[in-house]
Design a protein that fits this description.
It is a single chain. By secondary structure, the chain is α/β, with parallel strands linked by helices. The chain has one domain: Aldolase class I (TIM Barrel, Alpha-Beta Barrel), CATH 3.20.20. Helices cover 46% and strands 10% of the residues. The chain contains twelve helices and seven strands. Helix 2 runs antiparallel to helix 12 (276-291), helix 5 (121-133) runs parallel beside helix 7 (153-167) and helix 9 runs parallel beside helix 10 (215-232). The longest helix has 18 residues, at 215-232.
């Protein structure tokens, strides 16, 4: 990780050409995908999903049900992978960890006063440590958007670095809530701050506000990851979250990752989808490719 002395000036990060970004995104959606590659891509998408439940009404029973689905997506179709992880509140980490024992599915926990981020740093650090002590493999933190929008970039950097230190062995995903950052220039700036502060992943959204993940926002973040990798040699992962509900859209994202970062990022170690509803659409497409007919959504559990 870079030291503070070697940090770039975050007030002079690259200016984003929005029209150019939108033109590049439009080209990704026109790529044709052969049938054999489509099946491979669909299974890859399943293995990149973080199944998520982040509601005030969450119970241990609901979390256990989601964990079962995470490891048994559709048992009547052989050869399906598991999802990458489940994402829950810190109080549900132990329940998820116990339910997923031996499956290889990771447990992620949100922290830092998710989704608003409106709390003290001490509370945010305690939140993070509680999740890790209960077995979280990954932490999904939210940045202080108010401080960022005031231009207090050092505050945001220091907070991310403090949470990274509190994570211990757990990997850190840093959520920007891009719908609140307003501009692609701000998205690029937040990406640079997070990576230099030690983020293992950068993530678009909490899924709680609209707009959430979009292809232009994701492309800007992928290009920031590429530039950071060229400068430092350190790979950083990417997680678009919220608003990706169809396999067709998810395949477009994979094309964008491949053409922007290369094949090394096409695994769940470096790319994730935060989109629980996506799993069932992908399963329907796989069933169609396998049997020739669509199955009803009634055959797939919602959680």
């Amino acid at each position: 990780m870079s030291t503070k002395n070697s940090l770039p000036d975050f007030r002079s990060t690259p200016i984003i050409d929005q029209v150019g970004v939108e033109e590049r995104v439009a080209r990704f959606t026109t790529r044709s995908i052969k049938k054999s590659s489509k099946m491979q891509g669909l299974k890859m998408i399943l293995n990149m999903i973080d199944l998520t439940t982040l509601e005030g009404k969450d119970t241990e029973g609901k979390v256990k049900q989601m964990c079962f689905k995470a490891a048994h997506l559709h048992d009547i179709i052989p050869g399906l992978p598991t999802v990458a992880a489940v994402c829950v509140y810190p109080t549900m980490v132990k329940t998820a960890k116990d339910a997923l024992k031996g499956t290889g599915v990771k447990v992620a926990s949100v922290s830092t006063a998710f989704p608003s981020g409106q709390s003290t740093r001490e509370v945010k650090i305690a939140d993070t440590k509680f999740a890790v002590e209960n077995g979280a493999d990954e932490i999904d933190m939210v940045i202080s958007r108010g401080e960022f929008l005031k231009g207090n970039y050092e505050y945001v950097f220091d907070e991310i670095a403090a949470i990274k230190a509190a994570c211990g062995p757990a990997r850190l995903k840093v959520i920007f809530e891009t719908g609140e950052l307003s501009t692609l220039d701000n998205v690029r700036k937040a990406s640079d701050i997070a990576m230099y502060a030690g983020a293992d992943f950068i993530k678009t959204s909490t899924g709680k506000i609209s707009p959430a993940a979009t292809m232009p926002v994701t492309l800007v973040m992928l290009e920031a990851i590429r530039d950071y990798y060229y400068k430092t040699g350190r790979m950083v992962g990417m997680k678009p979250a919220g608003g990706i509900s169809t396999s067709k859209a998810a395949l477009h994202y994979l094309v964008m990752v491949k053409e922007t970062l290369g094949g090394a990022w096409l695994s769940n170690e470096w790319f994730r989808f935060g989109a629980s509803s996506l799993a069932n659409d992908v399963l329907m497409q796989i069933a169609k490719e396998t049997s020739g007919v669509y199955q009803s959504l009634d055959y797939f559990s919602k959680d």
